[in-house]
Structure formats: C-alpha cells, structure tokens
Amino acid sequence: MRGIFFLLLLCWSWMSLAAASEPEAVRVEGVLKPGGWAVVTAPAGSKLHYGGHVVKFDRLGQLPVGFARDSHSPAQLVVNLPNGGKVVRQITLAPRHYDIQRINGLKKKYVSPDPKTLAKIRADIAAARAARKRFLRQVAGWRERPFLWPVGGIVTGVYGSQRILNGKPRRPHFGVDIAAPRGTAVHAPADGVVTLAQKMVLSGNTLMIDHGYGLRSTFMHLSRLFVKPGERVRRGEKVAEVGATGRATGPHLHWGMSWFSTRLDPTTFVGVAVHKGDRVRALTSTVERPAGK
Ligand SMILES: [Zn+2]
Question: Is cis: bond before 82, omega within 30 of 0?
Fold first, then answer.
C-alpha cells in the first residue's frame, strides 16, 4: 500500500514537472521583426537566455527582449524554468528591408576625425557603454504601451538605413530623426531613470533614460537638458529641448532605443511605422502621412 502511494507521488511529481516544461509555460508577444521587441512571460523565477544575456524574470514572470537590426529568423529564446525544465522557442521574425541614406555637407572632423577628436569620441563611447551596462530592476517604464512621441515634427530619418556620409559608407542609422525648431520641448516617452546627461562630440548634448530591464531611450543633438543622472522621470515629462549640437545638419531630435547593447527601432514601441516626411505629434502615438504617399 505504502509502495503504491510513493509510486503515485513519483508519477504526480514527474507529470507536474513535464507539464511545467511544456512550451505553453512560456509566452512571447510583441513586434516580432528586426529592430522590434517582445515581452516574454514565464513562471516567476525562470531565467531567459538570449543574445548573449541571461536575465531573471521579474516577480510577475515577465521581461522584455529586443531583436537586432540584422537578427536572423527564427530568433531562438531559451527559458530555464525554476523546476529545472527548459523551453526553447523559435520566434519567426518578419522580414525587413532598409534604405540607403546619403548625407553630404558634414564637417570633415565629424566624418574623418583627427586623433584628438577621435580620443574624445572613444571616451564618449565608453561613457555610453557604461550607462548601457546598468540593469535597473525597480524601473517599470518598459511595461508602458504605447510609448509617446517625445517631440512633434517631421520624420527626416528612419531606423536601420545604411548611411553614406560625405560619400563614405558608415554604420547604419539606429534611431528615428524628427525635425523640429530649436527649443522645442522633448518629453520622456515612458517612465524611467536618467543614466547619462552630458555633451558628446558626435551626438552633442546627449540624454539617456533607462526604462528598466535593459531597455533605454537615447536623445541626441539637444540644445538644453533639464534633468541629471539619477533623477526619475515620468512619461510625458519635459526633459530637454531640441537642438543641433554635435554631428547634425539642422535642429532635430534623434531618438534611439536599445535593449542592453542591441539597437532597437523606437517606432515599434510607439506601435506605428513611419516614413520620411510623416508628421508626428508630441505626447501622442499618432502619425499623419502627407497626401499621395
Ligand atoms: Zn539620427
């Protein structure tokens, strides 16, 4: 009798382990394309392995992941469950094409910098990398949807385009550019904590807002900054003003987003696709396309 009881207990524990190991224990939802993101749901205490990162799920059993510009489909997410089980999910990413953007008339020091400028650029890169390494668990801005346009204006640059600066191929454009007059208010697209606010060679006055769990916004070419590192900001709060500092041909906001060091497309957080020439309105998630486009 006792033997049967133990056998039943063994069966039951094996069955519950098997059930929890089922792929259904893990859900993946989001904008599943290169430059996009997903929110992954799994039993609390699970750990996600993706893109060289190992991240523990929050107490609600969720976390965000980001897909790189050139990520291959399917993306493979591995989740280690707290009971020792493992779920492997193959995520099909929608195909994506990028255009070529030629920009001429930039000052030579920004395209082919001299050694002194190059040393400053390297120091800037190190500061940005240090800010991107931080991992803030207590910030939940990454859960907010949709993110809001930080500024109103005309879209002049989109995510992923291959750039040719003064005739020289350079790295792709990792953000969305919105042209607006100097001094136009820039708002936080979601809650966060400021992790960087300083002048840099290429990006001019630069602001990084960490939305938690490796997800962050970067604003470049600002004329004025109103917040400092360590400050908490609320979705919609005025944090800076548009400018043309650093490598810029005119006043505009460059808004980049990243998940750790993976550069993402901010428009996938607003939830709309944009094209050059579209008008976006501050503090909304709407886009107005000119007639005939
Ligand atoms: Zn830009």
Answer: no
Q: Ligand 1 mean position to 124 CA, how many Å? A: 17
Dist. CA 268 → ligand 1 center (Å): 16
pTM: 0.89
Name residues with Cβ closer than 5 Å to ligand 1, which is an ion.
Answer: 157, 175, 177, 254
Rounded Cα distance between 176 and 179, Å, is: 10
CATH of domain 100-288: 2.70.70.10
Please state which architecture CATH assigns to domain 2-91. Sandwich (2.60)
**Residues whose CB falls within 8 Å of the CB of residue 136, separated by 6 or more in sequence, listed in order:** 193, 210, 212, 213
Residue 13 has pLDDT above 80, yes or no: no
Reduced to 3 states (helix: H, G, I; strand: E, B; else coil), residue 8 is helix
Q: Which two tokens stand for residue 117?
A: 């400028």
Share of the chain above pLDDT 70, in %: 91
Query: Ligand 1 mean position to 255 CA, how many Å?
Result: 7
State in Å: Cα 118 to ligand 1 middle.
20
